[in-house]
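Q: What would this complex look like in 3D?
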Amino acid sequence: DIQLTQSPSSLSASVGDTVTITCRASQYISTHLNWYQQKPGKVPNLVIYGASSLQSGVPSRFSGSGSATDFTLTINSLQPEDFATYYCQQSYSMPWTFGQGTMVDFK
Amino acid sequence: HLRESGPRLVRPSETLSLTCTVSGGSISSSSYYWGWIRQPPGRGLEWIGSLYYTGSAYYNPSLKSRITLSVDTSKNQFSLNLNSVTAADTAVYFCASELHFGAPYYFDYWGQGILVTVSS
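A: Here is my prediction, written as structure tokens for the whole assembly.
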């Protein structure tokens, strides 16, 4: 199985900050890397697919980059509604796997 | 839209059975697989398995021996059976649509989730 390791596991930030979350794959996954946002008690919501493509309806302050084994999710000018847990997920090789999550909370 | 339904309490060693009803689109779409993902309380996401409208399915090897996925195109539904459950199977179970239009694949729409507790 391909393991995805996210860092940090949690971070504290303020409104207006720029936040960067990383996801490292245990082996090559090209750009088959997706990011999801999940708020407490809510459904995961697709944010980025294919490492860098913004899902329709997602604000442009979200961006993704990377390929092969190293990926980043960046949130520019953090907004109150962005405080959530973010998961990366690979769809390069089955079984599909998720990172352990990164919780973004208020500083 | 997707919506999970089924018992919220299952006894240990019995079978967990859930159904996902798809509305607003056809489960027979050639662009989609239909997946199950679960999330134990306070923990991360685990992919269970996915299937195509033809019945072709693929499973997480960690659960494969206990899982059956099935589809009913006449009802626009797909189902999950997980047998021999233990307390470790207590989780919120999500169904989701898995887009297979080119690459990569991703889960673009999710059901609201259903908390299933395994307890006697």
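A: To summarize the key features: Chain B has no helices and eleven strands. The mean pLDDT of chain B is 96.
Q: Very helpful, thank you.
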